[in-house]
Design brief:
With 359 residues, this protein is α/β, with parallel strands linked by helices. The chain contains eleven helices and ten strands.
Amino acid sequence: MCDALIVRSDECLLHVPGAEIWLGVRTPGTEIPERAMRIEQALRDHGHRVIDAGSHDDDILLRVHDPELVRHLRTVWDRWVEAGLTADDRHDRVVPYLIPSAGMLDGLPEREPTAVHAAAGRWCYDTMTLVGPGTWTAARAAVDVTLTAVGAVLTGDHLAYALTRPPGHHVTRSAFGGSCYLNNAAIAAQALRESGHERIAVIDIDAHHGNGTQAIFYERDDIFYGSLHVDPGAGWFPHYAGFADEVGRDAGTGANLNVPLAPGSGDTLWLAALDRIIEGAAHHGATALVVSLGVDAAAADPESPLLITHEGYEESGRRLAGLGLPTVAVQEGGYHLDTVGELVALTLRGLSSCAPSSR
């Protein structure tokens, strides 16, 4: 067994969402800085090596995301302030009020609105994912955390964990939402691909389907995406994606595997679903693995009803490690502060169980 290398950044703590607008009501945010602090402390307590992220250019980021989305995220807070909106403390965060749908445009071209309060909905697809003064810095730092972890794996570490915050798997090429701003898992996969791995598997164990990761790679056959998650057809986010009949398109047909699960499924069904996805990744011929490591399927978590135990998480890591692939794990969800750190630590212990000795 070898310990995972842990990559982190103080800048990932700078995003303070302040709230979510849920069904038109302002509610407390759940994706808060303390999540990352609890995870890091648990991993230090478990004796893992911890390093700070290095800086990286935007090359990989801009191959995963539309440059205009990146520009929007980089500038929208300053534009919000310059427009005078923060003079009213009820507008202390950027939040959409108008989201242009295909039905609204009815074939007309998408345009960039002049008003920043309208532009907010051009790029963000929900009202839960607010932007504040530290959001861009934190999201961009999470990219550096991710790429540092990828670099460690490419230079000899078998397993590196990116303590990414905010999370990322709900971000498509050109839209963000679901408390996510930039897609760290997709960036990790793209970086591994460009560094010589011909086929990558991205396996998503977060409680919710990673609609963004799926969308980014949906027409590609070099990156397999597999997700086990609470059934969107049972009324769970992201509602419109994550169904079993979504198998990829064109060249990517067969490289996408969703296993939606009924609420209350528990460890046995969850792990059986994971086995199906692992089999799919092996059949795909992957030579490197990215794990979207969300722990919000846990029994105590307020965001999911899947009821997965601590033992289930450790076993999930052990089964993923059975693929024997160099692995980058990136943090996604997990919102129960008293257990999130231990759940991540147990999953990493499982992931370490079949790893070769570290360099």
